[in-house]
Fold this protein.
Amino acid sequence: MNPLEHQIHYPLGDALPCEGVAMEVTPGVQWVRMGLPFALDHINLWLLRDRQPDVHGALVDGWTVVDCCIDSATTRAQWEQVFANSLEGLPILRVIVTHMHPDHIGLAHWLCERWNVRLWISATDYHVARTAVYDRNGFGGEAGADFYTLHGMQDEEFLQHVRGRASYFPTLVPALPSRFRRLMDGDGIEIGGRTWQCISGYGHAPEHIALYCAELSALISGDMVLPRISTNVSVHAAEPESNPLRLFLTSLLRYLDLPAETLVLPSHGKPFQGLHERIHQLQSHHRDRLDEILAAARQGPLSAFDVLPIMFKRQLDAHQMTFAMGEALAHLHCLWLDGELQRVLDSGGVHRFQLARGLVEDAGDCAVHIAR
């Protein structure tokens, strides 16, 4: 166990839902856990007991689904088990997706079509997902390989892997519903007689929506706050000068307004309490990585590829390497756009980051300051 986990509390202990069966975590909220074919091998999905008017205005009891898993024969079969075992004979009334990553939106089209219901999602994530599904050059491909090469990657096997990723997203998300209902920050959604407030977050996804219910003191955090791992925050080829880490760290501060005892329902890992402590841990984790990069930059300019062994001590496969390169760039960009590093293009056509002009090292505490 990560030592930091001792500082948060898992109220359900080691209990996990059985495959194809939902487990109640708080009144009206059921937990479904489905497998993923990645190193991160599962996702948590949520069923919220609901009541909605039909087209004639009559109230219908049923369920709201939050997140969907990837599209595969295995996950469709798992959903069929959930329908049979855990819906109490009631229909799905709507599908909410926290953000556009494949493990969250992959089966939205299938669920919406099967139950004839609307997808609810932020407009930004819906349209970015459409680009990823229907524009096969939108993610990965030659543009992605060129982007990683620009940042110091020279492993041809990895670059070939990236070139082949042009079809990666639509393999997991083959289609999207043609219509959606927009979720925006501050919206209140009535689900089963309770109000769930939308809280937007940035950095991990374009416009991630978490859901907080004050009556239950429960937060469906999506990927914004996870108990065991730090959410991936990456720079991508489509937005090459972005600053996702700064957006992510700023977004995390918003959750400090929620009660410290809030029950957090994350997309990966187990439900936990200790929201404020976990936010402080995540802030500290990223500050430590930034300090390590600054220390290395005192020895000379760094590409994103140079930063990988600083940030990641384990062996990475090709799939993990794409996330690692994006995360390395996110930390470099945070320092660059905050003025602590400057970016230069070297003679080999690689972007490198070096200490900004005017920065001095304080010999007393080894902190780097911007000369005023």
The first helix runs from residue 73 to 86. Residues 299-370 form a domain with the Arc Repressor Mutant, subunit A fold (CATH 1.10.10). The mean pLDDT is 93.
